[in-house]
Specification:
The complex is a heterodimer.
Chain A lengths: L5 H24 L6 H4 L19 H54 L12 H22 L5 H10 L1
Chain B lengths: L2 H36 L15 H10 L11 H19 L5 E6 L2 E5 L7 H22 L3 H32 L4 H7 L10 H14 L11 H4 L9 H26 L16 H24 L5 H28 L1 H4 L3 H24 L8 H5 L2
Antiparallel strand pairs in B: 1-2
Helix pairs in contact in B: 1-9, 1-10, 2-9, 3-4, 3-9, 4-5, 5-7, 5-11, 7-9, 7-11, 7-13, 9-10, 11-13
Classes of the chains: A mainly alpha, B mainly alpha.
């Protein structure tokens, strides 16, 4: 019955009036003294250098979104079945077991493919050596580039100029 | 509908709204006091007796504080996000029955705003809208930390939502209803927490992750992300986020009470005029108990690492939720044929639930794996 939703509509109006009203009332009563530093994005007082527009994210987040859709749709299928499965009896249970079993096969496949492994934090023993080699190469190269003695004269010059 | 009906309806809505606001004020105070006890501090002491008005004072202070909107912010969305955080929080509570029906002016009034025939689905829908507030706030702030915090906590919330739905499906199967009032009515002999204990455990864990409470408060891990998605919010806008978060905490606790702990049912000696008071008091008592457990968890456990959080959600909770849905189906359907096996099903369920809790504790306490040994050789 649609009339059942009437209290919810009233509640939505009340909560909306409360939220918008307190925002507006506060905007009339509070001080407003902006300055450029205050209004810059929070980055510990530095000028923000890389702003997120157009920034790309770890592909993991996209993967989570896709997996979420698969499994959430599965649970949405479960809801109507859960209400009526008593009348469906053993037949309904077996049907749903087959459905969950099929999704579970996909689930095991994703797991085996590493779809649920969030980071390289937990390294499988046979991969560990490979990772060590990779890191070693990374570190040696960067040390060659970084490890030149600091040019003291250049620093002093910079200090005088500033 | 006559005039009296309208008065009763609007009266109930206002009653619930004000009660929620006051309960949030008290629960925040309670949380600060209990956490202070854990850390041998006194906690808030100044505003009101034993500091009970401290949240009110904080709210009042935030109301008069300057609200900064960053230059890079997408202003319409930036202002919309706190409102989106607040409204669904109140709407989700609307389907919770908080007392037995009472008779006023010759009308039977249920102590529940709306007894929807899709009650549980409504709650899931409203908690999902809460995700929008997080992601819009983070995206529209035009700043790095909020964006990272928002993306992180969105991934966390949707991951745990699947497991939470599975836990709720098991309860619905057991009671056979989506209506909240029917689920409470079905628990008149045994609370669902006993036959559905594994679902209860899964629900409590997922509820913590859903409302971003410790140990799952990765969204606002202050040591890495400042304050997460609401870093750029200040003044009353921040207060609205805070309010929405705590209303959500009260709501998920109230859902735990309604679905698992018998709702407003409890022992009460009085009949007649005072009869309505007992169920309400029992409801408040049970919700407070669940929130107290959440505070204890916050005071006890360290924050989880993000990869372990996602691992735990996807690799433990979801397969267990699927397993438990089928097990519940077997418990309900099979006794017609194999009635004597019921105990065995329950035993298996409880063993697996214990295993689940143990694995969570293991994930939390396991010392981090030492970093690959490459760095020692290269340090010199």
């Amino acid at each position: 019955m649609l009339i059942d939703y009437l209290p919810i509509v009233v509640m939505a109006v009340l909560a909306g009036v409360f939220a918008v009203g307190s925002l507006m009332a506060s905007s009339m009563l509070r001080p407003n003294r902006p300055n450029p530093v205050k209004l810059s994005a929070y980055e510990c007082g530095n000028d923000p250098v890389r702003l997120p527009s157009g920034e790309r994210f770890s592909v993991k987040f996209y993967l989570v979104a896709m997996l979420f859709i698969i499994f959430d749709i599965e649970t949405i299928f479960l809801f109507p079945w859960a209400v009526s499965f008593r009348s469906l009896g053993l037949f309904g249970l077996v049907e749903m077991a087959v459905f969950i079993g099929l999704v579970f096969v996909a689930y095991v496949y994703i797991w085996r493919k590493g779809g649920f492994d969030w980071s390289a934090g937990e390294i499988a023993p046979n991969e560990a050596d490979e990772v060590v080699e990779r890191e070693r190469a990374l570190f040696t190269r960067s040390e060659q580039e970084v490890a030149k003695p600091p040019d003291v004269n250049e620093w002093q010059g910079a200090g005088r100029a500033g | 509908m006559t005039g009296i009906d309208w008065v009763l309806l609007v009266g109930r809505v206002i009653l619930v709204f004000v009660a929620l606001l006051i309960s949030v004020l008290l629960y925040i105070w309670m949380e600060r006091k209990v956490i202070a006890d854990f850390q041998t501090r006194t906690g808030p002491m100044r505003a009101g007796p034993r500091g009970v008005l401290v949240t009110f004072a904080d709210g009042l202070k935030l109301f008069f504080k300057e609200s900064i909107s960053p230059t890079n912010a997408d202003r319409p969305v930036y202002l919309l996000a706190p409102i989106i955080a607040t409204i669904p929080a109140f709407l989700a509570f609307s389907v919770i029955p908080f007392g037995a029906p009472v008779v006023i002016f010759g009308r039977t009034v249920p102590l529940q705003l709306a007894d929807l025939n899709i009650g549980v689905l409504w709650v899931l829908a409203m908690t999902s809208i809460g995700v929008y507030a997080v992601v819009l706030a983070g995206w529209s702030s035009g700043s790095n930390y909020p964006l990272l915090g928002a993306v992180r906590s969105t991934a966390q919330m949707v991951s745990y939502e699947v497991a939470m739905s599975l836990a709720l499906v098991a309860v619905i199967m057991f009671s056979g209803h989506l209506k909240m009032s029917e689920i409470v009515a079905q628990q008149d002999k045994v609370w669902n927490v006993i036959p559905q204990f594994p679902a209860f455990v899964v629900y409590l864990i997922c509820a913590l992750a859903e409302v971003n409470r410790p140990p799952f408060d990765l969204a606002e891990a202050e040591s890495e992300l400042v304050a997460g998605f609401h870093t750029e919010y200040s003044g009353i806008r921040f207060a609205l986020f805070y309010l929405g978060e705590y209303v959500n905490t009260v709501t998920v606790s109230a859902i735990a009470v309604t679905l698992f702990l018998g709702g407003w049912r409890g022992w009460w000696p009085f009949h007649g005029a005072a009869a309505w008071l007992g169920p309400v008091l029992w409801f408040v008592l049970k919700v407070t108990a669940v929130i107290y457990v959440y505070i204890l968890v916050r005071g006890t456990l360290p924050r989880m690492r993000y990869d372990r959080l996602m691992n735990f959600g996807w690799k433990y909770l979801i397969p267990f939720g699927l397993f438990w849905v089928l097990a519940t189906g077997a418990i309900v359907v099979l006794p017609d044929r194999y009635g004597h096996r019921r105990g065995a099903f329950m035993a298996v369920g409880i063993i697996v639930a214990v295993w689940l809790v143990m694995s969570l504790v293991k994930q939390l306490l396991e010392s981090p794996r030492p970093a690959p040994a490459s760095r020692e050789g290269l340090a010199t």
